[in-house]
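Sample intake — At1g68980-like TPR repeats domain-containing protein
Collected from: Salix brachista
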Amino acid sequence: MNLPLPSSSPCSSSSSSFPLTSSFPLTFRCPSPPLSTNSKLTGQFRLQTATNHINPTTKGLSLATSIPASTTSTKNDQTLLSLLRQRKTEEAWILYTQIPHLPPPTCLSRLVSQLSYQNTPLSLRRAQSILTRLRLERQLHRLDANSLGLLAVSATKSGQLSYAFSLINSMLRSGYLPHVKAWSAVLSRLASAPDGGPTLALKLFDTITRRVRRFSDVTMVADSRPDTAAFNNVLNACANLGDGKMFLKLFEEMPEFGLEPDILTYNIMIKLCARCNRKDLLVFVLERVIEKGIPLCMTTLHSLVAAYVGFGDLETVERMVQAMREGRRDLCKILREANLEDFNEDEENEILNSNQIGVSVFEKLLPNLVQGSNREPPLLPKVFAPDSRIYTTLMKGYMKQGRVTDTVRMLEAMRCQDDSKGQPDHITYTTVISALVKAGSMDPARQVLAEMTRIGVPANRFTYNILLKGYCQQLQIDNAKELLKEMADDVNIEPDVVSYNTLIDGCILVDDSAGALAFFNEMRTKGIMPTKISYTTLMKAFALSGQPKLANKVFDEMLKDPRVKADLIAWNMLVEGYCRLGLVEEAKKVIQRMKENGFHPDVATYGSLANGISLARKPGEALLLWKEVKERWEVKGEGGSSGSDSDSSSLPLRPDEELLATLADICVRAAFFQKALEIVACMEENGIPPDKTKYKKIYVEMHSRMFSSKHASQARQDRRRERKRAAEAFKFWLGLPNSYYGSEWRLDPGDSDY
């Protein structure tokens, strides 16, 4: 949602006596350097001060709107300001709704700030309504940067990331430089957000730092300059993208702003190594932290354990945990020994050569990597005992590998711990429940839930959502409904959007599209806003039940929802709905709309369309589809463009077995043997073994008497000569009698010696 602010330089009115309403001092400025020959700034900015002033570009308008028209309006404005100063936000809001005119800028800014600071859904909606009113009346310049920044922070905490991101961008477009605490809060959420969130985080960071660098006087933008937390947020975005080069670039920019990496920076570097498949570098990150004298904390060990669990190296994690239990400090030595066991020199060189990120990147990030294992591994500065999080992370590793027994044993061992930090918590029990649910053991999972209640460890919504998913996967929808009722009635845990998405998906598994729609409507009735998964799951219910028009209606609702961004999965579900009924033309129209909206068909799109063509028995459409697939397959080695504005044919595509097998089946049945051979060649080049037995059976049943007529005219024989040549080549590939070999391969009795 973009909030268009006035194009003129913004101006705010705020009293210098107004105390800030946040836990950090948000003093936003739209600064400008002093007019001197040494100034490097050429853009036009205005300094936003903390005193009341009038925008000179709208002087007449400001005077007309700020001077009260009557004594009553003046009294109301004074009363509103008094209530705000006394922190009586609720009474101030009620008075604001009763005032017919717009209050002065000071009152508006304070009211938005205090509503945002309350950080409740109701107060956030109220603050947003003020912003909406000002936008409609083209009076957004009445709000100062402090109030806008607090509103962005509140929206971020409430999960309205798109709104907060748009608000920060609107401030930047209007010349405001938001406080680092405000834009960094948005940056933090963007770094791990779906739908390209990390990429947007990088763009936002770049935009703000470029603005900051334009000022030669650092003090003028001191509140907006990035701090260590902001750098850590953008580095986290790089780690999530696996972009080591950008990580290094930003890492080297920290000294420019007088910053040094802290322990969290190196924790994020551990994540980068994991994303880049560099398990061998994890120990060097730990050693670098020790060498630099950065205070080591448990979070680093948590990150290391999580990284090794992610690699599936549970043996190394078990060694680490055992060493920590024994009070040892030689974890670096243990990790180095694990590296020597995992890699020989040839394997390590192969990994380095195949890795997308050059070795030089990590050599610059980790200077101690150059010496490698020639140096003596350092000791930890102190002894660290394993806590419940480390044990739980190891349990998650057991769960991923299907080792349910080891997961339960770990829980029993934790119960026997003398150290209170190692005792199981609700996350530990939830992990055990998740392992049991994954194994299909619902009764033992419910027993663990009952034990949590008995010993006073409260289960949370996440725990119940896992049980809901287990019942749905076991097709026990009635038990899932009972559990949903138990959540609300017995333990006072309201279901969230994940709970309802799980139930909607469960209804799909039992072919109950009506039940899926009922849960969707119930969710909206309770004020729970559907997510992208909610819409696509409901579309799936209607698509699989043969109701593509209803799926299309859900898709239209999704497009109207400003909080949700339709993705390729949603488009593909719409295509699947029409193709399941053989409605090829409707499916092609959807694909055309998809392309017009910047989405390019993928393997799933083409697979659904191929199935629809097969069902509709339109082999001519299969030829057109194969032509498009072939064009995209042939550019796979040419580095085709991946931009959203590129033509689909220029984007590389690797077809899968299902798509190629369906197209080959259609072409063989329709006697398009030349195209069938092309598809078969594509399958073999992609390492997909064609089903010769299936195609041989189809040929024998449908085409064995093809071209056998002796009464065809010469003209007709000439026309089908090319088809006959392709048929003979296809029979040759199948191993059937053909013009190349008149009969099957056989050994005569006299050739038995051979």
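Post-analysis note: The chain is about 60% helix and 0% strand.
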